[in-house]
Amino acid sequence: MKDNTSQTHLKAFNLNHHVWVKIKEEGYLHMKSIDDSFLPKEFQKPISFYRGRADDEGYTRFQMWEFMRTFGSTLSKGSQLLINPTIIFDESDFTPIN
């Protein structure tokens, strides 16, 4: 990053850290279809399994790389979002860039 590295407000985030996302019904169906595409029929899980990953406030926890792998292809200009566009990060996972 050219001149931006001297800006003290920038922080680094490791892709192995977690994020919390609210998933819409279409998003749960998307998650299931990804798993179903490589799991034999006898190992496929019901949609309730994916909904059950959400906490009491409706947020599902992912490692950032897992979230990107699962929903990255669905995030484009003009597409219908399968998630709520607000993602929650744990502030302690950010490190200063020096």
Main features:
98 residues; alpha+beta; three-stranded antiparallel sheet; two-stranded antiparallel ribbon; 3 helices; 5 strands; 26% helix
Could you explain how this protein is built, in words?
- With 98 residues, this protein is an alpha+beta fold.
- It has one domain.
- Helices cover 26% and strands 24% of the residues.
- The strands form two sheets. It has a three-stranded antiparallel β-sheet with strand order 3-2-4. A two-stranded antiparallel ribbon has the order 1-5.
- The two termini are 12 Å apart.
- The model has no long low-confidence stretch (mean pLDDT 93).
* First-last Cα distance: 12 Å
Number of helices: 3
Helix amount: 25-40%
Q: What is the string of SSEs from the N terminus onward?
A: EEHHEHEE
β-strand percent reads: 15-25%
Please mark out the parts with pLDDT under 50 across 5 or more consecutive residues, or reply none: none
Query: What characteristic shape results from the CA principal axes?
Result: elongated
The major β-sheet equals: 3 strands, antiparallel
Question: For the CA atoms, what is the radius of gyration?
Answer: 16 Å
Q: What order do the strands of the largest sheet run in, or round the barrel if closed?
A: 3-2-4
Number of domains: 1
Give the total of beta strands: 5
Mean model confidence by pLDDT: 93
Structural classification: alpha+beta
